[in-house]
Amino acid sequence: MKRHIRAEQLADILSPGESVYVPGGIAVPLAFLADLQARPEHSRDLRLLTSIAPGIDTPFDVERLDPSAIVSGLFMQPSLRNAQRAGRYRLLPMSYGGFVRHLRECAEFDLSVLQVSPPDANGQCSLGPSVEFLPLAVRRSRRLLALINPSLPRIPGAVSLPYERFDHICEIDTPLPEYRTDSDEPTRAIAGHIAGLIADGSTLQMGLGKVPSALARALRGHRGLRLFSGMLSDGLRELAEAGALDLDFAHTGCVVAGSRELYAWSSEFTPLRVLGCEVTHDARTLVGLERFVAVNSALEVDLFGQCNLEHAEGRAVSGAGGAPDFARAARLAPAGRSIIALNATYKRGSVSRIVPCLDDLSITSLSRIDVDLVVTEFGVADLRGASVQQRAQALIGIAAPDFRPALQEAWEKICQRL
Q1: What is the largest CA-CA distance in the chain?
Q2: Whether 397 contacts 376, CB under 8 Å
Q3: What is the mean pLDDT of residues 182-187?
Q4: What's the CA gap between 244 and 131, in Å, rounded?
Q5: CATH homologous superfamily of 185-417
């Protein structure tokens, strides 16, 4: 029998020691987290697993839970540093594809919490623009708590669940968070370089951020493009309205994150599919995509082509996400390309993002064998078929000009040890 619960009673359904899955994406169950943080005694000995990521979601404060509760997740951010040191937050070094396997083979939950649309005439509740890992978590859960949210757009091509599947129901009405980003001249230059590398009819993964947003604008003159990505944003709408997309293709992502206008539009865009990560990050599916182009970002790239996506000046600030899955697949797909895009400098141009070699303060999120091309505002380093020496020279050539002599000198010293 279903139990209807008010928002201020959500934590009452928990028992000490239970295992709970809390999704990330654009539909984080904020009402559940708010009640859990307001009444931390209900989180005693809980084990929470979450995919909440920095930049999209509203994070929650692990330190507001009972000290015995332990949260595990895929992403790090500065607000979690103390909790990690105290053992209250466990960072899992997995790609999205690796997390899919973890959920399939290792996870068991007493409860999964999710937001869904109100049921339709057939009793189906849509997961709307944020599916992510929920299909897997639902299969591994003994109980489900559904937050029924009329603000969640019903997307025809998204995963749905039957209303009868839910054990606990809470009706809320919470607007979805919006994701917006700005642009600048270096970003537009990077996007222009990348657009020149993408042929009509390519299948594209490009995620969220400044470069993907600028790249969508730069690709409006292309035709027959196909999107198969983890995250999709307002660039999807821009490309569709520009006539750049192949409308016979099922444009696919696991999360749609963007403006309110995008959410409303996506509910009418029938070629859109919002599916679980077991589909969007499946290696066999991705490798089979002809002319698959993966565009991902990095915090720094060294002269070997190794990419750090997770550590900034020695501090863990993010996670690998789906980049390793997409980059490796694009390297192996027929006529595919794995592209890494980044600004040449940071801190107002005082520090180079092209470095001689990743040091002990960095981490290799993508190996050198997973990268075809590296793009900065200064150009494109084509690493395909290049020797170690040629790769280094190509990367020096797209660094900010002021840093090239020092990079060349550092590389010559490295060469003496090779």
Answers
A1: 72
A2: no
A3: 91
A4: 25
A5: Acetyl-CoA hydrolase/transferase C-terminal domain (3.40.1080.20)
- Given a cut of 60, is residue 1 above it in pLDDT? no
Taking the C-alpha atoms of residue 376 and residue 354, their distance in angstroms, rounded to an integer, is: 9
Rounded Cα–Cα distance for residues 179 and 28 (Å):
14
- Residue 70 CA to residue 82 CA, distance in Å, equals 13
Helix H or strand E encompassing 345: strand 345-346
Nearest of 278, 283, 376 to residue 336 by alpha carbon:
283
Q: Which CATH class is domain 3-171?
A: alpha beta
pLDDT at residue 327 is higher than 60: yes
Q: How do residues 57-92 score in pLDDT, each as one tens digit?
A: 566 789 999 999 999 999 988 888 898 999 999 999
Q: Which residue has the tokens 């000290």?
A: 67
Reduce the DSSP state of residue 288 to 3 states and report it. Answer: coil
- CB hemisphere CA count around 178 (13 angstroms): 9
In the chain, where the domains are located: 3-171, 185-417
Please count the helices (runs of H) and the strands (runs of E) in the chain: 13, 27
The pTM assigned to this predicted structure is: 0.94
Supply φ then ψ for residue 39, to 5 degrees. -130, 70
Same fold, 3-171 and 185-417: yes
Identify which of 231, 183, 219, 213 has the alpha carbon closest to the alpha carbon of residue 25. 231
174 φ, ψ to 5°?
-120, 120
Question: SS3 sequence, 168-203?
Answer: EEEECCCCCCCCCCCCCHHHHHHHHHHHCCCCCCCE
pLDDT tens-digit readout, 87-120:
999 999 999 999 999 999 999 999 999 999 999 9
